[in-house]
Every structure is written in structure tokens, then in C-alpha cells.
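hi! just following up on the protien thing from before. the input was this:
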Amino acid sequence: MSARTTADFAATPAPPDLAGPASGIDPRGPRFAAVLTTTVLALALLLVPGPVGIALVAAQGAVFAVGTLLGVAATPYAVLFRAVVRPRLAPPVELEAPQPPRFAQSVGLVFVVVALVALLAGATLVGQVALGFALAAAFLNAAFDFCLGCEMYLLLARLRGARSGVAEGATP
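and the predicted 3d structure came back as:
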């Protein structure tokens, strides 16, 4: 997530142990996951409508579904990050709220499901366009630390707060 997004949620100092979803997540984890997602979706886009491409789309959809239903800390990419990458890094300076990345996972899931249904129905171009949108969003996060789905979450939270009369600057 971008620095502005992290500041929108009250960041807390990171404990020395691995933080769970209740206390926040290491902000480097979703970016690591975005690198893997970008790789999977780019390969899928190159290989569809073949069976390997469709299998990659389905596998990425399963990762997004886990992130949406169980939270980003439960995804295979998060498990890999915690087991292999995070032990080699210094503790994070601050943790981020897990809700925006979880929402981003659900947005990714929608695009991947549209792509998968289209590809299975023979609408290759529609599937490729949906994959392209998901790939673009994952690439923005991986390359520029800009989580489009997280920004959407924050915008929707602000709109929801404005409609319910929440004061400016209050956390929704």
C-alpha cells in the first residue's frame, strides 16, 4: 500500500513476533504477494486459452478466494512470505490494517472469475481483457507500491462515512 494509505489507518509499532490479522500485517507481505500475482497473471495471459493458462487463472483465483474469505494472512503467498522472506528482513517499522488488502483480494477475485468464466465459455478476448485489468492492478502494487484495491477500499470507506455523517478525519 502507498504511504498515504498506511497513514490513513492508525499504524502501530510492530511487535517482534509475527503479527496476526487482529494487530495488523507486515506491509511488505502484500507487495511480495503482488509480485507473485503479477508473475502468475502475466504467464496466464501469455498462455490462455490453452489449458495451462486456464489452470494458472484458476490457481490465482483460488489464492484470491482464500484472501477474500480468510484474510490475506491465510493466503499461500503470505505463508511463503512469513516462512522464507520475512525471517531475512528487519521487523517492519509499522503494521497496516488488513482490511484494505483483503478488499483488494476480493476485487482481484472478481476480475479473475470473470476471466475464467469467459475463457471457459470461449470468449477469449473478454477473458484476456479481464486478466489484463487484474494484471495491471497487481503490477501497480508490485512495482510502485500502489494498491489500487486498497485505495478503492479507502475511497468507499470515506464515502460511507460521509453519508453516515462521520466527521472529517475520523476513522470509518
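Helices lie at 3-8, 28-47, 51-70, 76-85, 99-120, 124-144, 148-163.
Residues 99-120 form the longest helix (22 residues).
cheers
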